[in-house]
Amino acid sequence: GLFVTDYFTRTPRKLSPFRSFASIELFHFHIPEDTVIAVWNLITFKEQGGTFGDQCPDRSITVYFRSGAPSVINPLHTHFPRDTAVPGSFALTLTWTLPNRTTGVFNVTSPLPGDWFLAAHLPKDEGKISVKGLYEECQYLFQPQLIVQRLVNIAVLYPGYVTEQRMASHNRSCLYKVFVPSYTSRVLVEVLRCRGAEGCPLWLRVRAKAPPLHNSTALDCRERTPCQLALDLPFWQHWYYVLVEKHPGVPGTVSFQVTVQLTDCSRPSLARPPFLPSSASMNMPHSFGSVGGLALGDSPPPTSPNGTKHPVPVPPSSPAGEWCWPVRPTLRNELDTFSVHFYIFFGPNVSVPPDRPAVFVINLLPVLDSGGVLNLELRLNVSSLCGENVTVFGCLNHEVPLTSSDNASVTCETESLAGFLFSVNATASLSRLRIPYPQTGSWYLSLRSLCATDHGFEPCTNVTAEVYLRAYLSPCINDCGIYGQCKLLRTNNYLYAACECKAGWNGWGCTDNTEAFSYGFQLLSTLLLCLSNVMFVPPVAIAVRSHYLLEAAVYIFTMFFSTFYHACDQPGIVVFCIMEYDVLQFCDFLGSLMSVWVTVIAMARLQPMVLYLLGAMLLSMALQMDRHGLWNLLGPSLFALGIMAIAWTARTIRRRHCYPPTWKRWAFYLCPGALIAAAAVLLYAFVETEENYFYIHSIWHLLIAGSVGFLLPPRAKTSGRLGPLPRRKGCGYQLCVNEQEELGLVDPAVASINSICTS
């Protein structure tokens, strides 16, 4: 055949350490039909400060692959919520082969067509809280690339027609495909009139959705005559691929014929049991049509391919139509993103007769519905059992309904199918099933009632069970509970939802309390973070005593909003918010930086009010630009320190000795205050982590407030015994310098006040 190669790539993205599914990077690909091989090229490289991160440590990268929907991953081995089905996926770990770059390759032979999802993340870190912009962070970038090779012009088999083929000596196989419509209960593939050098040296392989593999359903035509391969309960509305493969080492040409027979259980003339009820007995309106009216048109295919003719009809070997019952549709009602209710006609109470199953279909839209959670709830009306020991089994299968005829062992599995089983009875009358990130398409729910006996389960007699059925799509499981937040995430044009847990809770629905914070711990951490702001009371008292009323107002503002911001910022249930979180955060950050600003300006002993207004405007602008950026916050503080340094330098030059001139001011106030402030900054920048946040940040509050009490300068006071200074009359001016203020003494009453006035 003719091969066509397609190439797909995605933009590199920065990977994050795994905390929850909200922290992973998700990539969406689409594999076309008839693809024989898909190769993912996984490129990972390091960056630090815009250059190659050769000095960055090697951190393993885990990549997950899944077809049809995103992977449901659990790298931390947490507990899933009850009644949650976890679909499987394939994981791959990348290791580093070069200092700053590594490449991995993942091959899939004959992949399933449609949507494929890749999820990637770094290992969980120690939870260190880093200050943005303090140092160049190591970034790990991940870029997946996809190369697919697909066949074109694959021969199509038409049911009921024979296709003749001659396989030359240099050819090893022939590939065909046949479309299986809905309400098909059996697919029969047969090889006829096979002639070769050694009888019929052929393998017959059949697979749904993609070309067959070495482990697909196969039959050796040398050992079976006639060479027939039957598949019961095929997937509906999908292509089935038929591979006729020659045995290795067989010389010469092999000629054969291939035919396909489909058993349509919705038509009375094809393998329909005589007891199959009509639509009226199923309590369905005539507008839905009869059971026989669900079949496709009886017209032959458009144009028969060359070399085909009508074969002799092959009757079905077993009454496979017993699996095909009328399917009741559901009404889709979209309320919001990933908030969809599926209403059952003449429901939600459903009657399950004793002699036949009740089958329903739930259609999930491609791409749109795979990012949520499919929820099913089944509740049994015990009063409808009439005292019988009845159990109602529910079987949920993807793309084909499954109702077993075996009464002794009720399962939702066959050799080629696997579904989800749940049940209700008089003892346990409620059952739930949750499927995170379900595959899209048609999901079929089959309900069947059986009576329990000493010999197993048997069909009930004259007992019609009544159940309440609810099916809906939700963003997260139980909205992530009280210790989680359901987040709506987007990757390119694909939307999905995930829980982000807090207060030590983990798991897909934030229900794993293995590392959860107790109520006492949450209360203690909240009280420490809030009550540590009381340390601002001494600086407020010192400022009021020294007549720094503006500074005292700023400290009160900071103490108030820092207290209530941390009361609102708690991850658990000990939370108290007096206004919106963003407002509290902005006021807390603004108050903290304004406290630094007014303290430094006061230390510079500059009186113009324009400096205070300038600081308020600069800090508000910086916080609005980036509330967590280092230089946006450090810049105004350094500017204030520069103003103070200039003022102190000017006084030093004018007085020709250091300012402040007294060693007591340096030894007992400035140096201790600077050391305390430096210790607070070091704790905040390098020691604080998520685990120790509540007490390290409380210590930060104490140290910052304490440093303000040491650094705030005293306000000079004039003695009441001295009158006003004489003012020279006439033209000229007076420059009065208060030596007490210049010396920066703590208690101005200790020394005499000498004012020197010069004109």
From TrEMBL:
<dbReference type="GO" id="GO:0005886">
    <property type="term" value="C:plasma membrane"/>
</dbReference>
<feature type="transmembrane region" description="Helical">
    <location>
        <begin position="631"/>
        <end position="650"/>
    </location>
</feature>
<protein>
    <submittedName>
        <fullName>TMM8B protein</fullName>
    </submittedName>
</protein>
<keyword id="KW-1003">Cell membrane</keyword>
<feature type="transmembrane region" description="Helical">
    <location>
        <begin position="548"/>
        <end position="567"/>
    </location>
</feature>
<feature type="transmembrane region" description="Helical">
    <location>
        <begin position="693"/>
        <end position="712"/>
    </location>
</feature>
<feature type="transmembrane region" description="Helical">
    <location>
        <begin position="666"/>
        <end position="687"/>
    </location>
</feature>
<feature type="transmembrane region" description="Helical">
    <location>
        <begin position="516"/>
        <end position="536"/>
    </location>
</feature>
<feature type="domain" description="EGF-like">
    <location>
        <begin position="499"/>
        <end position="510"/>
    </location>
</feature>
<keyword id="KW-0472">Membrane</keyword>
<keyword id="KW-0812">Transmembrane</keyword>
<comment type="similarity">
    <text>Belongs to the TMEM8 family.</text>
</comment>
<feature type="region of interest" description="Disordered">
    <location>
        <begin position="294"/>
        <end position="315"/>
    </location>
</feature>
<dbReference type="Pfam" id="PF12036">
    <property type="entry name" value="DUF3522"/>
</dbReference>
<dbReference type="InterPro" id="IPR021910">
    <property type="entry name" value="NGX6/PGAP6/MYMK"/>
</dbReference>
<dbReference type="InterPro" id="IPR000742">
    <property type="entry name" value="EGF"/>
</dbReference>
<keyword id="KW-1133">Transmembrane helix</keyword>
